[in-house]
């Protein structure tokens, strides 16, 4: 089931309460378009795919990866444990020659709240070699959102993840800076979710107390859940990770500390949690790699992808 279906059912319950139903519809379902043509915004800023690092034309796919003159991707599948304790995850180790080859894409080529599309559709539109779901920015109105060099939202609220044009990827405190300052410093993309599950190679304490949102309709991110994360090995050297869950005997999901441990085992020193649950998905060469817990991909607001 999608988050929209769940919320839509809730609206039926609220139907007799008048204002409550109207509030819920406005908050969770009504599309609030802030930028109607993201591609045009990127063209105006000079940050479109053709204006920055043009995707390679010599790429070759295999069942376990992709190689081009600009990009190397290696896919691995790992399963640990047995029975109800089985955990299965999919990792894509990514190395790119230019940080601009890692891009974001928005649902329907728009920016705003409650605007969604299937990740596979966004990946196809972006010409993505590899994609994972992003931070589901459209479910909230807070956070700093810079995508492909364009600042779309400047509402600092939590720790974020910043991708720089020089290939660095770092966790940062949104409340200590601004979107304009980050763009001026060379930030290419930001993701606003969290928490950081790996810092200087160690799993931080207190992860099980973290909350992204406390508003109505938000699902807990604690306990064993399907997960999506970014891990940092080095400059222009990342891991895209999806841990499946909610399927006994195949994969129970992972806790936040376990997510950090998985990334550490993959050679990462920094790790950042993204939107998970039914939205966790990895797409490679146009195909869904993992087994989303919704028995299919869930519509969301954005993806992070590799186009090299």
From TrEMBL:
Hydrolase in keyword set: yes
Superkingdom to which the source organism belongs: Bacteria
Sequence ranges assigned to domain Phosphodiester glycosidase in this UniProt record: 127-306
UniProt-listed InterPro entries: NAGPA
Signal peptide: none
UniProt entry keywords in alphabetical sequence: Glycosidase, Hydrolase
The keyword Transmembrane helix appears for this protein: no
Name of one Pfam family that matches: NAGPA
Single GO molecular function: hydrolase activity, acting on glycosyl bonds
Protein name: Phosphodiester glycosidase family protein
Native source species: Brachybacterium equifaecis
